[in-house]
């Protein structure tokens, strides 16, 4: 059985208190483990994680516990079950002094893997709001989460679509996507695979992501760092300061009317450099590409006909040459 052990030490590593958060279900194999710990500004510690129970229907679930920072006393503990899983729960402070969380929810049905971004009630741990972010046909899971200096939430994780890759996702507290970037590494046999492990934000807003890569033909495990600017675009060298790095404008889009009216969708484009071109695609909920094309910086409007398309949710994705991606959910009623 797994329990979670939480302890506080002083600066000389003398133990001040320790608390064991017991598994909520006894006499079952495996149990709880932690993925994040938060010390808030109100004298409390919040530990979040997952329950792994492989021989039950709900064999993954997320959990969070709030403790008193001075005594270690448990104030509340909550479990958030998801059918077939809720892997990788993380809690960060939000702009109101409350708690935002990020978790994963997946099923064994294709295209139903989601990342949840929401807010918790600080007094009870109950879910106040939740947004569900999907990448159709892909499996994705957060590995590290932090609250950015601008108030947004940065999520680094791993995904799988034909092969494994890493990703960086920036959202606001309501779960609206601000920016998205995939990270891939081509090895000697053409297989791209990233295991993302950690994420930090520098004082200038730039980002460093660390992880590992397994290459059986060149020495086994390799470890890497990737430096990105605040928009998720590559920088020349993540091991030095970025004062001289060129800032890249991030493409933006506005889709209207949304929900679509009379089967016509208009996309207004902005934020592209004068020499830049972008590619775009429209996907259905299962990840199938329905429309695609390219636009130049001089093009401000893109008009798409959705005549004959089935009612439902679609995804419009715009990608520039630096890998910076923006996406918009489109509803066809």
TL;DR of this structure?
The protein is mainly β and 333 residues long.
Structure notes:
A hairpin with a 1-residue loop joins strand 12 (153-161) and strand 13. 32% of the residues are buried. It is built from no helices and 24 strands. It has strands spanning 4-9, 15-21, 31-39, 44-52, 60-68, 74-81, 90-93, 99-105, 114-120, 127-134, 139-147, 153-161, 163-171, 177-183, 195-201, 207-215, 220-228, 252-261, 264-270, 277-283, 289-296, 301-305, 312-320, 325-332. The chain is mainly β and 333 residues long. The strands form seven sheets. A four-stranded antiparallel β-sheet has the order 3-4-5-6, with no helix packed on it. The protein has a four-stranded antiparallel β-sheet with strand order 7-8-9-10, with no helix packed on it. The protein has a four-stranded antiparallel β-sheet with strand order 11-12-13-14, with no helix packed on it. The protein starts with a strand and ends with a strand.
């Amino acid at each position: 059985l797994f329990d979670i052990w939480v302890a506080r030490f002083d600066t000389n590593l003398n133990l001040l208190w320790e608390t064991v958060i017991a598994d909520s279900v006894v006499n079952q194999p495996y149990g709880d483990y932690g993925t994040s710990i938060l010390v808030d500004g109100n004298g409390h510690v919040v530990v979040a994680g997952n329950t792994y129970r492989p021989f039950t229907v709900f064999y993954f679930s997320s959990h969070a516990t709030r403790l008193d920072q001075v005594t270690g006393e448990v104030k509340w503990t909550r479990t958030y079950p998801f059918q077939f899983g809720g892997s990788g729960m993380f809690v960060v402070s939000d702009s109101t002094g409350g708690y935002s969380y990020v978790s994963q929810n997946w099923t064994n049905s294709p295209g139903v893997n989601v990342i949840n971004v929401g807010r918790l009630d600080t007094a009870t741990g109950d879910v106040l709001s939740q947004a569900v972010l999907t990448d159709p046909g892909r499996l994705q899971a957060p590995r590290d989460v932090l609250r950015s200096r601008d108030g947004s939430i940065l999520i680094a994780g791993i995904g799988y679509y034909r092969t494994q890759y890493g990703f960086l996702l920036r959202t606001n507290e309501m779960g609206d996507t601000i920016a998205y970037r995939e990270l891939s590494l081509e090895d000697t046999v053409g297989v791209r695979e990233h295991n993302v492990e950690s994420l930090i934000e520098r004082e200038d807003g730039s980002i460093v992501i660390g992880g590992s890569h397994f290459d059986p033909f060149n020495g086994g495990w390799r470890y890497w760092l990737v430096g990105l600017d605040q928009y998720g675009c590559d920088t020349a060298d993540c091991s030095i300061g970025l004062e001289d790095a060129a800032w890249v404008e991030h493409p933006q889009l506005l889709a209207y009317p949304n929900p679509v009216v009379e089967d016509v969708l208009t996309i207004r484009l902005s934020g592209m450099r004068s020499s830049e071109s972008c590619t775009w695609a429209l996907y259905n909920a299962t990840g199938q590409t329905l429309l695609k094309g390219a636009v130049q910086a001089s093009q401000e409007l893109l008009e798409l006909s959705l005549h004959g398309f089935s009612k439902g949710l679609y995804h419009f994705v715009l990608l520039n040459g630096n890998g910076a991606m923006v996406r918009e959910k489109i509803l066809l009623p």
